[in-house]
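INTERNAL TRANSFER SHEET
From: sequence group
To: structure group
Subject: Polysaccharide biosynthesis protein C-terminal domain-containing protein

Please process the attached sequence and return the structure record in the designated field. Keep the field labels unchanged so the import script can parse them.
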Amino acid sequence: MSGPRLRIPVTGELFRTVLANCSARGLAITGLTLATVVVARIGGPAAVGEYALLRMLPGLVGVLCVLGLPGALAYFLAAPRRTLPRLWPTLIVLGFGGGLAGTVAWVVVSPLIAKVFFPHESEWMIAAAGATVSTQLFLTIGKTALQGLEDRRGGDIVIAAEELAFLPAYLLPLLIGIHGVAAIIVGLALADLVVAVEAWRRVSGRLGWRRLGLARGDRGWWGRPDRALGRQVASYGLRGQVGGLITLLNLRLDFAILGAMAGPAVLGAYAVASKYAELLRLPGTALTWVFYPRLASLGGTEAAATARRTVRPTLVGIAVAALPVALLTSPVMRLLYGAQFGPAVTPARVLLAGMLLAGGSGVASAYLYGRGTPGLNSIVLGAGLVITVVLDLLLIPRFGALGAAVASTAAYLSTDALLVYLLLRLTRLPRQRGNRTPVPAEAST
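Return from structure group:
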């Protein structure tokens, strides 16, 4: 049974927490926007396209190799699982092993990556971008560890800083004479490292460890890993990893297909449109971030009731915010990026329609992860991925960026609607007894 102190109100403290996380993500988007503007002014749409690909592809390789560790951290760091013996040495081995494997994999396939996505860049330069596989994982694992430890302030700072840090990190190589894609690679790696060190410093402080956890035993993260525990983490992580990977593909597969078919210049305009539309996804992403570790700490009945109560306000809030964001699309695009990015306006408006249910799906995903059933989330997202692939291949060759926007919008609305439906079905009250809420079996899917 869960005590009263664990109850999560839908208003008050929870509202402030979600608002703070939204603000952090808003700052992150501001930093990303400023960086994109600078990259666009220096190199044009083609440079923006390369920047978008270099932010996406190394991260994708990393999550494939790390066995779902980022998605599993919040579950295993929630009380009481965070006290499991040898938990941290096990997590560290998974993280280091995944980072090394991802970097090697990138270098091996870099000739193909260069040929398909960066035809005007040298293979050795693209191979060097493999360093960002490890730096992105270093940052991502530190950030999700803060989420699991419920260091809300620290997590918000890292979320904002990981985007804000790129611009000064990008300007530094420019000042010393490094230009083009090399400056982007150096900027990405340097920004990741700076913010990751801060994230891990906060993790160490949250746990009360000295010397950044370098001590052995129960006062640090070095020691002998537990194979059985590692299998548990990997099992949960891989089930969630499928959903996380599908989410990433649903959000960015259009980037890869459009970049391969239409080139970096068209992709650059579309990347701007996509990032603008994703403003409406901020509340849902923030709700998932805040709710996931909290719901993992609650009893099943209370978690179900809390999640169910939160869905309707999020859906209404996103719908209200969508209209002014849509009306401001054209002036914002032209003011920030210039007339050459005018073709991004229509795809951005189409993508905005796809974000209308994102708030509700954010709550649903947090509930499924928090109850130990990430596989259900993955199954639903898999349906959206099928829609994305089929429609991208059908529409992009004929309609370009607009076709990619239509395909993504169809996938977003389908998966978000299914997730909301699944949440409402799993948490509804039985007709026979109105005082209990059914809860799906934990860690079964």
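Handover comment: Confidence is low (pLDDT under 50) at residues 1-10, 432-445. The two ends are 23 Å apart (CA to CA).
Transfer complete.
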